[in-house]
Amino acid sequence: MKFARFEGTRDAYGATLAKLGHEDPRIVALTADLAGSTKTSLFAKEHPSRFFNMGVAEADMMGVAAGFAMSGFRPFASTFAVFATGKAWEQVRQVIAYPKVPVRIVATHAGLTVGEDGASHQMLEDLTLMRVLPHMTVIVPADAIEAAAVTRFAASHDEGPVYVRLSREKFPIVLDEGYAFELGKSPILAAGTDVSIVACGVMVSAALQARELLGRDGISAEVVNASSVKPLDRETILASAKKTRAVVTAEEHQVAGGLGSAVCELLAEERPTPVVRVGMQDEFGQSGSADVLLAHYGLDAHGLVAAAKRVLAR
Amino acid sequence: MEIEALKRKANALRGDVLRMVTLADSGHPGGALGMADVLTVLFYRFLRHDPLRPDWPERDRFLLSNGHACPILYAILADRGYFPKEELWLLRKLGALLQGHPSTAWEIPGVEVSSGSLGNGLSVALGMAMAARLDGRDSRIYCSISDAECQEGQPWEAATAAVHYGVDRLCAILDWNGCQIDGHTKTVMDVGDLAAKFRAFGWNVCEISGHDVDAIVSSFDAFLGAAGSGRPTFLACRNTLGKGVSFMEDEPKWHHGALSPDELARALSELGVVLPR
To answer: What ipTM was predicted for this assembly?
Structure first.
């Protein structure tokens, strides 16, 4: 399967946020010396009075963002995922999650696909760190179309904090223009009967490719876009597991604590089903180009095909 | 409220603090007693707020970043009418309004930020001050921090950013009592001359005794006069932990811990506070 279009989720975020800034004067954007990389520079250019670069100080940025939100603004705080959820986890817990302050934490450069910068910048534990926080919503857009839709959703979500995980690389477009994001809903992108692949982020495109490869071997795979990692779409995932009785989870993240864990927790309690989790197997990444890294760690279509055959062999 | 009345009020509030902590059988009385004077002056003379409308958007805000000192904040909020005084005696009990540390999650009226983890509050206060300016509101944002809290890194991030953004409606109030859980701050981790450090960061700095009510009043007046200066204000209050109770003063062990009934009786007697029947 060849994808026709590629676009960065962070590019879609930056463009959408700048556009939303014209519609909503309560939106403010903050970054920690990463305006260009997070594409909040687009917002800064069009709305300079509502853009705040806090310097290399992520903890302070989260607190300041909370102060804005508690004063009636709609703050978007953006930096790399490793800093947003690692350096500032304590601030996110204490002054954002616990008091349910609606800060939109939109983190870019998550996962292996950061590439050459290596393990220090390849955040592979952020879904775990954010998912365990009560009150926190966690979303991983599959492509730029979903990233734009989720940005729009986040702007209007005043009920509590949101964590949105974006990436550096340009990802294949897998969704249709006009796609509507709904929190807690995981649309089935391609139906199947033998195995369910529950994926998020760039792994959704890999899952679609794997589905095609599996089809050549007579295996019918269903692909679920689990962009809403928290809250999880329990109904869709349980129904898919009931139908196929075999599940593969796929994420550009440690298999511990992220989407794979969330799916296993659900299935273990509600419908025990054989599962194979594709993701980082309790190790850190390394330097390399994005494609090479994904293939090296089995986070590609071939890795998913192997995982599907393994779970079906049980 | 006039000077002598403020002094009497602060003393009465100290009595409430000690009763609360004794009834809770836990909590942090030392810092709370030390901050009683400066917070009394703030809440009874300077802060523009409305206990009947805690969410009034135009209000000034006070954030207790050194959240463990909350008994004095709770005592003040109850006395100002944010919630019934009876709530004070349920501090730290299951289901009580008054949590062990200030919480907006529990919607404690008058509490502006959830705190307890040291280092976080000044950033939130800065965000509120920046938001007020963006809104064109004249809200003043006051935020207390403690000296040992400055062992954390985050207050310095906020101190840098507050000057960079020229936020002159922000007033940090330093509870400079030289004590922390593990002992005297000079021994545990000397934070040095915090007034000089904040001055070097570019803040307007007033250094006073936090028990000199006249000086506190003058300092807050100076802060109000600093509007337009483009600099935040740092009110460095040399406080005495446990102020007003001889056996508690400057004793780090009273950072936290409840008083025995005998100790409470002695403390109230020294403060001249008579328990209501």
So the answer is: 0.96
pTM (2 decimals)?
A: 0.97
**Structural domains in chain B (count):** 1
Is residue A154 located within the same domain as residue A269?
no
Q: Is residue B78 part of a domain?
A: yes
Looking at the structure, do residues A194 and A100 belong to the same domain, yes or no? Answer: no
Of B105, B125, B127, which is closest to A98 when you measure between CB atoms? B105
Tally the domains of chain A. 2
Percentages helix, strand, coil for chain B, rounded to the nearest 5?
A: 45, 10, 40
A134 within some domain: yes
Residue A167: which CATH number?
Answer: 3.40.50.970
What CATH number is attached to the domain comprising B67?
A: 3.40.50.970
DSSP run (H or E) holding A249? strand A247-254
Q: Please write the tens of the pLDDT for every residue from A29-59.
A: 999 999 999 999 999 999 999 999 999 999 9
Contacts with A11 (C-beta within 8 Å, 6 or more apart), sequence order: A39, A144, A170
Distance CA A113, CA A287 (A): 10
- Work out how many CB contacts closer than 8 A connect A with B: 106
Domain that holds residue A252: 188-313
Q: Read off the pLDDT of residues B158-175 as tens digits, 9 standing for 90 and up.
A: 999 999 999 999 999 999
Distances (CA, A) of A68 to A98, A103, A141, B125: 16, 9, 26, 9
**Do A244 and A131 belong to one domain?**
no
Q: pLDDT for B134-165, tens place per residue? A: 999 999 999 999 999 999 999 999 999 999 99
**Residue A236: count of CB within 10 angstroms of its CB:** 20
- Provide mean pLDDT across the span A187-207: 98
Task: Look at A72 and B57 and tell me if their CB atoms are within 8 Å.
Answer: yes
Name which of A151, A150, A144 is nearest A170 in CA terms: A144
> Is B171 domain-assigned?
yes
Task: Check CB contact under 8 Å for B157 and A71.
Answer: no
Token readout for A47 is: 């709305």
Q: Is A8 helix (H, G, I), strand (E, B) or coil?
A: strand
Are residue A89 and residue A151 in the same domain, yes or no?
A: yes
Count CB atoms within 10 A of the CB of residue A180: 11
Q: Please report whether residue A122 resides in a domain.
A: yes
Single-letter code of the amino acid located at B74? Y
Same domain, A143 and A17: yes
The domain that holds A197 is classified in CATH as 3.40.50.920
CA Rg value for chain B: 17
The yes-or-no answer on residue A169 being catalytic is: no
**Contact call for B123 and A63, based on CB within 8 A:** yes
CA-to-CA distance for A309 and A40, rounded, in angstroms?
A: 42
- Eight-class DSSP state of A250: E
Of A172, A201, A228, which residue constitutes the final position of a domain?
Answer: A172
* B160 CB within 8 Å of a chain A CB: yes
